[in-house]
Amino acid sequence: MDAPALRWYFDFISPFSYLQWRKLRELTHERAVALVPVAFGAVLSAHSHKGPAEIPGKREFTYQHVLWQARRDGVALRFPPAHPFNPLAALRLCVAAGSGAAAVDAIFDWIWRDGRAGDSLEALAPVAAALGVPAGAVGSEQVKAALRANTESALLAGVFGVPTLSIGAQLFWGNDAHEFALDALQHPELLEDPEMQRLKQLPIGVQRRG
Fold first, then answer.
1. Pick from 1, 20, 57, 139: most CB atoms within 10 A?
2. What is the pTM of this model?
3. By the 8 A CB rule, do 150 and 37 touch?
4. Which whole number is the average pLDDT over 111-128?
5. Angle, to 10 degrees, between the axis of helix 58-73 and the axis of helix 15-28?
6. What's the pLDDT tens digit per position in 29-38?
């Protein structure tokens, strides 16, 4: 049986994507993983969701949780000057650079390791230069169309948040699901467990009021 295809959907606006990338890089040395930058805002809109940074209380908790996870894992993390920010320039730069590991590394490190702005091509100019990407390439219609196609493919796959690692058709959402994904990758029978299968069919109950 052929090994399932691995695809990783992410957005540079997401610090959880940065944290998972630090783990996922190890897996890319062993298995081919398609790195798929997507517009998280479009994913949220398609599902009529708000991002965690748009909800008072959840925003502050999320930021503290991210920092705690980074410190726990020994990962350098510094928030950019403002968050949330418009990530389109960073996403398009990644696509223009070929969406390879070197581009993903450079952009994540610029924004989340070093705490620099990633909300415009001007802010990302040193990264683009280091990656050898001409400024005009980032705003090309070809690059914009490729990013839209990435986002549409994510939605068709059922992606509802970032980061998401897909193992075949199975989606694993979030940095905190990374170990779950690795376990399922090593032991495919894990998801065939009767209780795992029952949970997929669990009906939605009606909450009574009053």
1. 20
2. 0.94
3. yes
4. 98
5. 30
6. 999 999 999 9
